[in-house]
């Protein structure tokens, strides 16, 4: 299975600013996490490049916001069609720079396109309201307007889906965009912008700059300090999100922050265990466990604990680990050595504090997974709350199992975290469904379901998992503000 592109011009190695592809003196190397082989180099941008991107977006904003919503929708729909037309090449790019198996990468492209299509349709539905006037001779209305220039900062784990989920609603609302993709995975984002250029978006409407980990603060701080940037949308760690929120205060930017998670997955004694295991496999091991909504703490009732573990270990132990170009790979490499080191540290800490490895629990350096960034899919039993993996997001293929005995106990344990992005539980008791769903402190709850995300659903968290929503009709509203109009003297 080859990861070579059939359309080579989708491998972009320049910034895109004001409708032009631009070089920079400094360069950033992009490598394949499967074997750390170099792929290419992209710009290592500076604050100067960041400000040029804002100049272009600001200059394009007035014309873009005045473009009829139907015309904006047509352009976004054309972008969606091009993404689907080039699904195979985009999937190969994702696999090449991010490492996930090609079948999963193709699925991500379709998932990304679903958001583009959704917001193409939502562009024409940003309705306002007519408000009943309290006195005669007055008309009161509320209309929605785009916030202005949006700065989008995207993560490496879903390089197509995250940029689509942010840029599509911004463009649909009438905003213009400056974007900085993650330093590990800029190529997919650049390819998507190339397709947006081909779709016919006006110059300056969408701009992208790439930067290394070291120079990212310089780029982002330039946007934070610029009063012309009216919104920050970010997916990533909670510490970085807090920094963005603090720095946005000086210019009172609107923020959408989708931050860290520590998702509980609860299996009650009356659960369908086969369904629960299948749901956990989908939610935990997608993208090798490198998602913000992955279950990080699996709570299983004591009455069904052993049976559940036996079923889970059988499935986890059968997962195929290898590079994306191996057709039978189900788990690819982790994104880099830092990620593997963190996973190994969490497992070692858990074992030192009494956990037992039921399967996995080691780095892999042999067979199909010959490379530095592989870790075996792992199940740990006898997990406890004093372990690092209970309090810090592992972001890898590790499933720690905790026992519980009562509903009240597991609700308390599930909520005992500063985070609140996703939560899951399995039960066949209808009354318990509503009790538990309402008691969990989380922005997203899966009830007898492990696959949560959809373009029509609001995605986002509570507590230190951030605020704002992506996807759904609420996702468009996050890129708009409300203007109240009051006309008097009508009687």
TrEMBL record:
- Per the Swiss-Prot or TrEMBL record, the active site comprises 258
Q: Which UniProt keywords apply?
A: NADP, Oxidoreductase
The record's listing under CDD domains reads: ALDH_F5_SSADH_GabD
Q: Which Gene3D superfamilies match?
A: Aldehyde Dehydrogenase, Chain A, domain 1, Aldehyde Dehydrogenase, Chain A, domain 2
Look up the EC number in the record and give it: 1.2.1.24
An annotated GO BP: gamma-aminobutyric acid catabolic process
Q: Aldehyde dehydrogenase domain spans which residues?
A: 28-484
Q: Which domain of life is it from?
A: Bacteria
Q: Which GO terms describe its molecular function?
A: succinate-semialdehyde dehydrogenase (NAD+) activity
PROSITE patterns with a match to the protein in the record: ALDEHYDE_DEHYDR_CYS, ALDEHYDE_DEHYDR_GLU
UniProt lists the family membership as follows: Belongs to the aldehyde dehydrogenase family.
Q: Which NCBIfam families match?
A: SSADH
Entry protein name:
Succinic semialdehyde dehydrogenase
């Amino acid at each position: 299975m080859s990861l070579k592109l059939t359309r080579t011009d989708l491998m972009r190695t320049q910034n895109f600013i004001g409708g032009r592809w631009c070089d920079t003196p400094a360069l950033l190397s992009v490598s394949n996490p499967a074997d750390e082989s170099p792929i290419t180099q992209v710009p290592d941008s500076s604050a100067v490049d960041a400000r040029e991107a804002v100049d272009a977006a600001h200059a394009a904003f007035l014309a873009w916001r005045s473009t009829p919503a139907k015309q904006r929708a047509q352009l976004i729909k054309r972008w969606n069609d091009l993404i689907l037309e080039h699904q195979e090449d985009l999937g190969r790019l994702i696999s090449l720079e991010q490492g996930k198996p090609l079948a999963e990468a193709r699925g991500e492209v379709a998932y990304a396109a679903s958001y583009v299509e959704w917001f193409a349709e939502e562009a024409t539905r940003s309705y306002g309201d007519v408000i009943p006037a309290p006195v005669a001779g007055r008309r009161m209305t509320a209309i929605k307007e785009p916030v202005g220039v949006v700065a989008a900062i995207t993560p490496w784990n879903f390089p197509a889906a995250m940029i689509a989920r942010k840029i599509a609603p911004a463009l649909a609302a009438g905003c213009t965009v400056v974007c900085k993709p993650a330093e590990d995975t800029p190529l997919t984002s650049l390819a998507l912008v190339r397709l947006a250029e081909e779709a016919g978006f006006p110059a300056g409407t969408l701009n992208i700059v790439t930067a290394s980990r070291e120079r990212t603060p310089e780029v982002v701080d330039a946007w934070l300090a610029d009063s012309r940037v009216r919104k920050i949308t970010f997916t990533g760690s909670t510490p970085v999100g807090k920094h963005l929120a603090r720095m946005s205060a000086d210019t009172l930017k609107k923020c959408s922050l989708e931050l860290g998670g520590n998702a509980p997955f609860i299996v009650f004694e009356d659960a369908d265990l086969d369904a629960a295991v299948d749901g956990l496999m989908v939610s935990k091991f997608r993208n090798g466990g490198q998602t913000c909504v992955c279950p990080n703490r699996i709570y299983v009732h004591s009455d069904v604990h052993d049976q559940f573990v036996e079923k889970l270990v059988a499935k986890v132990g059968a997962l195929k680990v290898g590079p994306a170009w191996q057709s039978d790979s189900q788990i690819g490499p982790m994104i880099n050595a830092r990620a593997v080191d963190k996973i190994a540290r969490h497992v070692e800490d858990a074992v030192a504090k009494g956990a037992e490895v039921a399967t996995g629990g080691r780095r892999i350096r042999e067979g199909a997974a010959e490379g530095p960034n592989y870790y075996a899919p792992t199940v740990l039993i006898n997990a406890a709350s004093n372990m690092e993996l209970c309090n810090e997001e592992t972001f890898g293929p590790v499933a720690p199992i905790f026992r519980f005995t009562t509903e009240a106990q597991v609700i308390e344990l599930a909520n005992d975290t500063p985070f609140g992005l996703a939560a899951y539980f399995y039960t066949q008791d209808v009354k318990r469904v509503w009790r538990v769903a309402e008691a969990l402190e989380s922005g997203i709850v899966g009830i007898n379901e492990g696959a949560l995300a959809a373009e029509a659903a609001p995605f986002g968290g509570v507590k230190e998992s951030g605020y704002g929503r992506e996807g759904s009709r609420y996702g468009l509203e996050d890129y708009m503000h409300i203007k109240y109009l009051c006309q008097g003297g009508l009687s």
